[in-house]
Hints:
Blueprint: H1 7-10, H2 15-37, H3 41-51, H4 59-70, H5 74-86, E1 90-92, E2 98-100, H6 102-122, H7 128-144
Antiparallel strand pairs: 1-2
Helix pairs in contact: 2-6, 3-4, 3-5, 3-6, 4-5
Amino acid sequence: MEYSYSDADLLRQPIGYWSWAAYDAVVTRIRSALAELGTTQPQWWVLGQVAGADPAKSRDEVSRLLRNYLGTGPEAMEEEIDHTVARGWIDQDAAGRLHLTAEGRAFFDKAAAVQQELHEERHAGISDEEYLTTLKVLQRFIRNTGGTAWHH
């Protein structure tokens, strides 16, 4: 692959810019593809948590886990859960546990296929070894600067 800078020039480039530029490109692409399906990335996260839960998670469990992804208050995640319920993708049982509806399962499967295509697109020409190295280096940058990060 051709890079826009020589190795010597890249060594002087700011990690903050390049990590932001990667984030911006990836998230913009994901959100655009999900918007074409008629959903948002946070709604996708909700569907993913509900679809993969065994046993089923409560609304509060899903909200607490995902609100950190938004970097906002809990109300924003609650609204996203409300949207998935209003769209008929999720319902809540008498015990307060969230479940995909038949319509929600069909939509989740469709969106999951798009997410898999996006994953393959992002990883084109990148070996598993390169990907792991990149993530480990980013984790060290986070630790070295006193930051914290987690992903579930």
